[in-house]
Design goal:
Length: 338
C-alpha cells in the first residue's frame, strides 16, 4: 500500500544500545535482549541505526521516528543510563537532520539522579521527554521517592511515556502454570500481562494523587492505552462514586485526568475494532501513531492508517492529527521535508 500524502511521526520505536548488554554481563544477569531469547528475532534490527531503518521509513513515508530504548527488567544504573542517552544522541547526529528524536532512558532506581538525567537530556541533548519502564524492579511509582522524576518532567513540560516491562514477582504469582516457562513469560508480557502492568502503573499514579500535586504532568500510554479505554466506563464510575468515601480526596476526577494529562499511542495495535474504542474514549488531540518498530512493521502501520480512513473511523483531518499533528504539538517537534 502506498504511503500517505502527509507526514507521519512514530513514537514508540525501539533501539538497543551496546551499553545495556554490557551492563547485564557485568551484573552476571541473563541478557533479555539476546538473540537466543523470545524476541531475539528483532535484536539485529534493534542494534541497527542507519541505512536499514531509514530505508524502511522512506519506503513507508515516515518522516520522523521518536526512538527509545527497549525495556530493561534489571533497572539500569546511573552511568549506564547516561551512556545510553549519549549513544542515541550520537546516532541521531550521525543521521540526516530531522529524521530522529529521542526519549531519555532514566535510572529510575535512583530517582534524584534520574531527574537530573532527564534535565540533562532535555536541555543539553534536545530530547523530547522520557520513556520509563512500567515498574522499577517490581516497584511502582506511587512511592513518593519517585516523585522528583515526575516533578522534573512537569517542570520541563515534557511527557513521560510509561512502557510495559517484565515484572518477575507478578509473573510467578499470576502466570506460571501447567505449561512451559516460555509460555508463562509470553503470557506475563507480550500476550497479556505487561499491558495490564502498565495500566496498573498509571492507575497507581492517579490513586496516590500525583496529578493533583503536579497538574501539568503529561503521561503517554502505548498499545492503544494499555487496556484502560476498554475498561474506562467501569473504572471511572467506580473511582468517582466510591473513592470519596474510602479515603480518596482527589480534587480532579479520573476522567478529567485522562482527558487533560494523558496521550495514547497505537504502538503495534493495528486493529480497527480496538481503535474505534480508543477514538470514543480519548479526545481527538490525544491519540497518536506509533509502530513499535522493529517488533511492529512500518508497512503494517501505514496500512492501518489507511484502513482508519477507508472504514470511516476518521476523516482526513482526524487522520492527520493521529499521524503527526498531535505528536508535533505534544513534543514540540517540527516535521521537516526530506
Amino acid at each position: 500500500m502506498a504511503p500517505l500524502s502527509h507526514p507521519i511521526i512514530t513514537l514508540e520505536e525501539a533501539f538497543l544500545s551496546p551499553h545495556v548488554p554490557s551492563f547485564y554481563a557485568a551484573q552476571n544477569h541473563p541478557d533479555p535482549h539476546a538473540e537466543s531469547g523470545l524476541t531475539g528475532f528483532a535484536t539485529p534490527s534493534l542494534f541497527e541505526f542507519g541505512a536499514q531503518r531509514l530505508s524502511s521509513m522512506n519506503d513507508n513515508g515516515i518522516s520522523l521516528q521518536i526512538v527509545s530504548h527497549v525495556p530493561s527488567p534489571l533497572p539500569l544504573d546511573v552511568r549506564t543510563a547516561a551512556a545510553v542517552n549519549d549513544d542515541v544522541a550520537a546516532k541521531i547526529a550521525a543521521n540526516p537532520a530531522g529524521r530522529f528524536a529521542a526519549f531519555a532512558t532514566l535510572p529510575m532506581r535512583y530517582p534524584e539522579d534520574a531527574a537530573k538525567e532527564l534535565r540533562r537530556c532535555v536541555r543539553e541533548l534536545g530530547f523530547v521527554g522520557a520513556l520509563i519502564d512500567s515498574n522499577c524492579g517490581g516497584r511502582f511509582y506511587d512511592d513518593s521517592t519517585f516523585f522528583p522524576v515526575f516533578a522534573a518532567a512537569a517542570d520541563l513540560d515534557v511527557p513521560i511515556y510509561i512502557h510495559p516491562c517484565p515484572n518477575e514477582a507478578v509473573k510467578q504469582l499470576l502466570y506460571a502454570g501447567n505449561y512451559s516457562a516460555d509460555i508463562a513469560t509470553s503470557l506475563s508480557e507480550y500476550a497479556w500481562g505487561w499491558h495490564n502492568d502498565a495500566a496498573v502503573s498509571f492507575l497507581r499514579l492517579f490513586a496516590c494523587g500525583i496529578f493533583d500535586r503536579l497538574p501539568a504532568l503529561k503521561i503517554v500510554l502505548g498499545h492503544c492505552g494499555e487496556m484502560i479505554p476498554f475498561q474506562m466506563e467501569r473504572t471511572a464510575n467506580v473511582i468517582e462514586r466510591q473513592w470519596p468515601h474510602i479515603g480518596g480526596d482527589h480534587s480532579r476526577t479520573f476522567r478529567a485526568v485522562w482527558n487533560e494529562n494523558v496521550w495514547v499511542t497505537t504502538s503495534g495495535f493495528f486493529d480497527t475494532g480496538n481503535m474505534a474504542c480508543v477514538l470514543r474514549q480519548c479526545r481527538p488531540d490525544r491519540v497518536m501513531f506509533s509502530v513499535d518498530y522493529p517488533f511492529g512493521k512500518n508497512e503494517a502501520g501505514v496500512a492501518f492508517l489507511n484502513k482508519l480512513l477507508e472504514e470511516g473511523l476518521v476523516d482526513e483531518e482526524g487522520l492527520e492529527r493521529i499521524a503527526w499533528k498531535n505528536a508535533e504539538g505534544l513534543l514540540r517537534v517540527k516535521v521537516e521535508t526530506w
